[in-house]
Amino acid sequence: MLNAKIIIPIATAIIFIMISIAGYNSSQKVGNNDNSWLVKIGNKEYTLLDYQEFYNDLKNNSSLPNNLDLKSYAFDKLVDAALIEKEAEEIGLVISDNIIKEELQKISSFHDENGKFDKKKFKGTLKRNGISENKFIEKMERFYLRKQLMQIFTLNRGVIYPSIIRILNSIIYDQRKAKLITIDELDIQDNIIASQEEINKYFSENEQIFTIPETREIEYVLLTTDSLEDSVKIQDINDDEVVMEYKKQEKYLEIPERRDIEQLICTDKKVVDMAYNAILSGKKFDDVRNKYETPYEYTRSLKKISPNDYFNKILTEILFSLKEGDISRPYQTSLGWHIFYINKIYPTQKREFFEVKDYLINEIVFNKNQEKLKILTEKIDSDIKKKISFEEICNKFKIKSHNVHVQMRYNKDYTINNNEDENKKFDNVPKVIQNLAFNTKLLDISELEVINDKEIKSIRVLSNDISKTKKDDNNSDLQKESIGYVLLKVNKIIPKRLVRPSDKKLEKLLLDQKKYNLLTNLANSIHSTADINDQSDSNIRKDFFNSLKKLVNKPTDINISRIQPMPKNIDLELLGEIFDLEPGKSTKLYFNNERKQYHFAILEDINYPNNNEVINSDYEKQLTEFYFDIINDEYLQYLHKKYKPKLNKSLIYNN
């Protein structure tokens, strides 16, 4: 049984690339000065035009939190992409033309009626979306380049380059010594008061958080293949159809030629030349490798490599031009000098019909039902244009509707006047429905909005239609990315309104803010008194403890690392922040509601291990386990320190 995820998701991701570029070309620009740089690394500049691509792509991403500062987040993603591209350039990573060509041919939107890539359809689709061919190909290349570098593992097989091991070694095994400072809330309660004048001023200066946002009552319907009365079932598909589909997809279902390759790495050019000559003289590759290789741990054997794997173009051509038993000339990378030995060649392998039959049946069912769904939505769209009512449409096509309240969010602050349950209720409304609701006039019917599989599932959760969501998850290995539609009507609009809480509640909020500001200012005073080069207690905390000696509990020593259990009863976010500090610096202030304490930490020292102390037979396994949790953030932090990008973030807010 063929796992459809092997074939489908990458092509689907490229469709989103196309959508993001189309959004970029058709949307309003962020600013007028599009050529002003926002990010600069070396001589390369990234402008507002580059930023706009990320902004438009994220703007349509329904999985992002509603209270996210989208401009700032898009800027951060642009910086990440710039760093990744710089690192890829430095290590010589290139995505081959063959990979782009093959992935391009998998995109079903560019296929003809026989399921084959149609260049005319490809160009026509791009033209309709206002995208140039070069721009689309460039976007694909950047997509795969970033994807591969951030995956870190060579060939997606859990094998890690030695240079990456050395980088991550310090990330994972560093030991950090810190002091934890705690202050009991009650100890500062009596020292802070709020006058009526201050309470009134606090309310007037913070009206936004006391404003109940505009709320809309809507009725919506979700249209998926489950909405079809005459949907196609697996049992409706005959063998002739499956055989025909097999013949259409036969080429795409082949397993490409693969190779087992041994490699030898030397950091010294003279040594690698000696090794190369020794092999040519008839000595065994393993014997030569044991004698001449640089003595550090690296991946000796590369198993079942295909031309589609993410080597750079030149190296791919070298490895696949050799015959079984051949060796390559010395080849230089950022790791050193390599000699490759072709140990075994596995020829292109045809997948037999019985291996892929189940997959093909599901493929046919999926395509037929998506076509039926498209016809249904065209009929509904026609009725909308004829001004047929929402209720009549639901009755005519036997579609169940759902009612929900949608609230406009202004920024990351939740309104004080909503309780926690109300805020949670509004946050559970998918972003696609929120956007549609606030782009539709009172008593109007929205346009049919195309939604992806993730959005379908989030709307089903909102509708309490969990059974279908679970069914899809259980069959996910045989399903493509689904496409659905959502349609809604705005029944009522409740305008935003300012509501003043009681003076007692306002006083409590103001006192809490005063306490927090006081303690934050005291905590920040550490930065001006700390001597980073001197780790003694007196220099780091002298002035601070003098000002807090009546309030501060006895400081607690904590020693933490990522490979040891974290101390209990300490905020995990605080512990995580310690890993971003330099010695002598403090975390921000945190409040532990259960213990009624404010606390923060001062980093005193960092101890990095010697590589030889930790590299052992279990190292790659340990690193693999840590990879998924830390690699993205930590590797990007490493790239920030390595390349020191110049940033001009204010430009996105000034335009």
Automatic annotation (TrEMBL):
<keyword id="KW-0812">Transmembrane</keyword>
<keyword id="KW-0472">Membrane</keyword>
<dbReference type="InterPro" id="IPR052029">
    <property type="entry name" value="PpiD_chaperone"/>
</dbReference>
<dbReference type="GO" id="GO:0003755">
    <property type="term" value="F:peptidyl-prolyl cis-trans isomerase activity"/>
</dbReference>
<keyword id="KW-0143">Chaperone</keyword>
<dbReference type="InterPro" id="IPR000297">
    <property type="entry name" value="PPIase_PpiC"/>
</dbReference>
<dbReference type="Pfam" id="PF13624">
    <property type="entry name" value="SurA_N_3"/>
</dbReference>
<dbReference type="InterPro" id="IPR046357">
    <property type="entry name" value="PPIase_dom_sf"/>
</dbReference>
<keyword id="KW-1133">Transmembrane helix</keyword>
<dbReference type="Pfam" id="PF13145">
    <property type="entry name" value="Rotamase_2"/>
</dbReference>
<keyword id="KW-1003">Cell membrane</keyword>
<keyword id="KW-0997">Cell inner membrane</keyword>
<keyword id="KW-0697">Rotamase</keyword>
<comment type="similarity">
    <text>Belongs to the PpiD chaperone family.</text>
</comment>
<dbReference type="InterPro" id="IPR027304">
    <property type="entry name" value="Trigger_fact/SurA_dom_sf"/>
</dbReference>
<dbReference type="GO" id="GO:0005886">
    <property type="term" value="C:plasma membrane"/>
</dbReference>
<feature type="transmembrane region" description="Helical">
    <location>
        <begin position="6"/>
        <end position="24"/>
    </location>
</feature>
<keyword id="KW-0413">Isomerase</keyword>
<feature type="domain" description="PpiC">
    <location>
        <begin position="213"/>
        <end position="344"/>
    </location>
</feature>
<protein>
    <recommendedName>
        <fullName>Parvulin-like PPIase</fullName>
    </recommendedName>
</protein>
